Amino acid sequence: MNRRHEAICDPVSLEIIRGAARAAQSEMEALLERTAMSAFIREKKDFYTAIFDASGAMAVGSDLPIFGDIVGPVLQHYPLETMQPGDLYWYNDCYGSRGAVSHSNDQVFLAPVFLDTIRVGFVMGWAHFSDIGGLRPGSLSPDATDHFQEGIIIPPVRLVRGGETNDDLLRAFWRNSRFPLQSQGDTRALMAAVRLGEARVAELAARFGADVLADAFAQLLARTESLVRAKLAAAFPVGTTRFADAIDGDGQGNGPFVLRLALTRTADDRFILDATETDDQAPGPVNLLMHPDVPGMALGLYFLQGEVGQVLNAGGPRAIDEVRLREGSLLWPRSPAPLGLRGLTMMRLLAALHGLVAVARGGEAPAAHSAYVLLALRGEHAGKRFLMSDGVAVGYGARPFADGVDAVYFVAQENYPVEFMELTYPVRLRHYGLHRDSGGAGRFRGGCGVVREYEVLCDLAQVAIRIDSVKNPPWGVAGGRNGGSGRILLNPGTPEERLLPPLSDGTVLRRGDVLRLETGGGGGWGHPFDRPAELVLEDVRGGAVSPEAAARDYGVAIAAGALDTAGTVALRAQRGAVKLFHRKDYVDAVA
Amino acid sequence: MPSPEPRALIVAVDIGGTFTDITLQDAVTGEAWTAKTPSTPRDPSEAFLTGVGLALVQAGRDATAVGRVLHGTTVATNLILEGKTAPAALLTTAGFRHVLEIGRADLPRRDNLWAWRKPRRPVAPAMVLEVAGRIAADGSELAPLDEEAVAEAVRAAVAGGAQAIAICFLHSFANPAQERRALEIAQATAPGLALTASSEVLPVVREYERSMATVLNAAVMPAVATYVGRLEQRLEAGGIAAPLLLMKSNGGVAGATAIRRAPLQTALSGPAAGVVGAAAMARAAGVPDIITVDIGGTSADICLIREGKVGLTQSGRVGPWPLPLPMVDMVTIGAGGGSIARVTGGALAVGPESAGADPGPACYGRGGTSPTVTDAHLVLGHLPPALLGGRMALDPARAEAAIRAAVAEPLGLSLEAAARGILAIADNTMVGAIRIVSVERGHDPRGFALVPFGGAGPLHGVALATLLGMTRVLVPPSPGVLCAQGLLAADLKSEFSRSVAQPLAGAAPAALEAAFAGLEAEAADWFALEAVPPADRATRRVALMRYEEQGFELPLPWPEAAKPRAALAADFAAAHRALYGFDLPGVAIEIVTLRVEASGRLPAPAMPAPRGGTAADALLGRQRLLRPEGAVEAVILDRSRLGAGAEFAGPAILTQLDATTLVPPGWRGRVLPAGALLLEAE
């Protein structure tokens, strides 16, 4: 029944619809986790879900700041009016989706949802597939020079039409993976999850009516937009606020590459984000094809903290009136520039957006974090090819209200347990712990990165490593000091000890070789001398801070595991002046 | 009249914040007595014995007539949730002292990246002590245990104030020898200290989850041991020689000795007793397939029971911590009768904040001013003017004022619409949880009866059933005290598992048989420890299977008689399809874990038929019920005066001491011979 008049969703139904949408997401996620095959999905949990309105605007997303316009790319090939119940669309095409996905390992599965013949919304399942072909196992390599080396590209396609699956397409895709069984299992899991979400949204539409559901989605979008807009206005004065930061390099000898952001609030309260002065694109795969919706999602997530009952959705991007990018730059590269390791640029971009807030609000913003680290070990063992993609945690920035978080990878992504690693791959872990002194000193301490030491147990293997923020460690703010850098050592403590390039591929390892990986921390917040001495002592006892750093950075004297009060008073009498940011020294701007 | 059978009495003790409730039942005749006495928080065992004494006096029986004493304790749960566990230390493999601090390096999916704080671990990193020694993934020893370092670490832990020590070494699930040796050294070095090794608590892969369980078990041990010891002393002093059995998270009971060693097994037992009680009640009523909804003041627990069997899961949590011990498979949500409704940012939310028992809902008149779910019920005419058999009057004016100020006015709704909205949101949260245990697991809720219990359950039962298309609601005889019924009905239960990890197609039958036989031998030792007579012992074989490369297993019953592997594979594929909507033909299936579930049957008490008359005999009065379609007049019936076979039609409100049941128009009720009330949609 298609009623002509607009139905209004009352506040109670709105809350019920929001709750039910969240529950549907949880169900989809549980199904994926339980049935997927690759460790990247089932142990590390690199997957997300979202629900969209009938036009394709994201109404209920994941709490993740990296989504662009997901539905749009499909509509370019398959107009809305041609869609049928039972359809399922699929793509991973970065350039073809204008950055809605930003590296090819991420597969997007999307189903329109119908109530009888009325389209009421879309459901998305998104997951990182561990290998889709390309230059090296895992499809991502610092050595890539061309996007076509980063795995098979699937433009938006209709995988299922009216319930009929195009198996030919799937077989062609699986044939391109070095691990076809995992690819097959992951595909089926993702398809089943999307079907489940589709059923749940259809039930919601049946219960409340298509037009009430549509109004509910519209209200959720409007609510998020107005909230983010109000918070932007509270944070940024009229005029232009600028912040710049750099990634170290592209792994191929080029860099640093500087990201330059300028946020303008006009007199009539329009918000314009300009990134056109960012450096040119890199030859190596650190380019971030940044969908123009991404800055709004990222700032949206930042401003939604503490707002119970609000959801991150396309209302975030709508709060920013214009995003200006320059073609050929690091943030809007030209095809076929390689994109595989865009994560490190993305992580630096998120901190740079906080840098804008810090400049506008005199330091009332989180300090910077390190980019997550990936170590990929590949080779053959017991007659079988293996790929160990180990995502390793870093430290997050301290905040004006709390320490930064120790040892986090990213939203909802988990580490591989040591026991799982040793049961699954030809490695032995010799050490896994917090990386002492990597958290930036401050009234609130930056989070620590980790140390992970691997011994190779197969004859021959090759390692790829991805560490950023080595030359440019994560900045501290409001008196807080920068966080520590990461690095990777081969055979530490032996005559053969050698530092490996932090962003590199192809290092050959043999049985018995030891890799020691140390990841970076987060910046500190506030003057370290203002941190209560008892907390510093606790950090020393717990292994997060060394006694030397306690004295040097915090002005806290510790002798024989106890606080030396007189010594601390003496040290803290030598309190130095600070500037807004800290990177190696106190500075007014970091790049 | 025959003399009462010796030791036929069963005692169930439920210690609440305010009162301690005792249920005494004669297992032979089914006759039951209840007693209530103020709780004694400083030493709960005091009220425990006082209450048992009162009940015995009522029954006119002697202490020697008691055959068993059952108790559910929340001591371990509360210590963990409140962060008040004993100071503890963790001994771990050298190089891995930060396993607990790091956790799984994740941030919860529904939390904000920039606002989240990592919860404080129950053991500070300074109290995690490394010991050299190493076991490989295949169980072989790579480096010997440094025994002197163990002793030194134990001394350091004691010097640092530890009252409990947990030991968790890498891969101890594959080879527990080093952990056992470290345990012996610790016992010798610090006699009397609470000690736990991970291979005793949770012998499964994944070091963070196992370390956490071990630490929690050790850290609640001192308090639970003291608690259980006092109860036993009191019983002895009171002349009761019967065994003390405690409820576990798996829905079974275990003797005090077993609980002292593994107190963590009680951590999720609170809601388990109610589920067991509901299952027993439904069995007696001849309804094997039920979904239970236990609604208390602050939370609701939801569980699905098929063919009378309570399912188990190992994906539970307690507070922020994962707890992969076998527990009754249920979902807990923060919505209850005391859940507070409020408007933030234009959105109406209900819970998880709760007014609790004190100050309680606004209508209790004890100083609460926030509107709660209970206030919404009162405004809509769902509650009688007074609760607790007339002892506690409700104040509709306060309920109305609270809802008007906090909900109706901010949202521009009428009082009635606001009250209905509060209930709709609370019901929706519960419906979501019911879907998780039913639809999400491949069960159609319409084939089940809904069993609402807890003080607030029967008020929501029919509304929830309607939202889910269910047509039958079964209300227990005493919905508010079903936990006691659960204790009385519980059997002794324990599970024994072993990792086998091999392909289903290739696994040698003899090796599997030997593994199962080994587990059954462990079960036999346990039966002996719990003194279960051979006739009452039962074991069930279960295989946990998955497609190769998956990370999550499905439990399937393992046939006693040989069954072709192809048939087992077909069973697995069917289960996978039912649960997830697809199977993977041609992909190999693995057996990951073998499990033997052991239960020692305890004689179930009889359930006597309710005495009473017809609905006309039970009529207390009438009151106005506000329905979406308009006001209607409902009868108020006294449930205690409804006999077996009594029938009535909605709209009706049934009052009893421990709960209120709402029967809207379009539903009919009938009292079954076993005492339960069956409500059916017309």
TrEMBL record, chain A:
InterPro entries: Hydantoinase_B (IPR003692), Oxoprolinase-like (IPR045079)
Stretch forming the signal peptide: none
Matching Pfam families: Hydantoinase_B (PF02538)
Gene Ontology CC entries for this record: cytosol
Positions of the Hydantoinase B/oxoprolinase domain: 10-528
GO terms of biological process kind: glutathione metabolic process
GO molecular function, one term: 5-oxoprolinase (ATP-hydrolyzing) activity
UniProt-recorded name of the protein: Hydantoinase B/oxoprolinase family protein
Source organism per UniProt: Siccirubricoccus deserti
Source lineage: Bacteria, Pseudomonadati, Pseudomonadota, Alphaproteobacteria, Acetobacterales
TrEMBL record, chain B:
Cellular component terms (Gene Ontology): cytosol
SUPFAM superfamilies, A to Z: Actin-like ATPase domain (SSF53067)
Domain Hydantoinase/oxoprolinase N-terminal: 11-188
A molecular function GO annotation: 5-oxoprolinase (ATP-hydrolyzing) activity
Residues annotated as transmembrane: none
GO aspect biological process, one term: glutathione metabolic process
UniProt domain Hydantoinase A/oxoprolinase: residue ranges: 210-495
Domain Acetophenone carboxylase-like C-terminal positions: 508-668
First and last residue of the signal peptide: none
Domain of life: Bacteria
Protein name: Hydantoinase/oxoprolinase family protein
Organism: Siccirubricoccus deserti
